Amino acid sequence: MKRVLLTGAAGTLGKAMRRALSGWADELVLSDRVDISDLQVGESFQQCDLADFDAVKRLVEGCDGIVHLGGQSIEGSFDSILNGNLKGTYHIYEAARQHKVKRIFFASSNHVVGFHSRETHLDADSPMRPDSLYGVSKGFGELLARYYFDKFGVESALVRIGSCLPKPVDRRMLSTWLSEEDMADLIKRVFSVNRLACTVVYGASNNPWSWWDNRKANFLGWQPKDSSAEFETEVLANDPLLNTDHPVLLYQGGFFATAGHFEDDD
Ligand code: NAI
Ligand code: 15L
Question: If you measure from the C-alpha of residue 231 to the centroid of ligand 1, how many angstroms do you get, rounded to a whole number?
Answer without folding.
Answer: 25
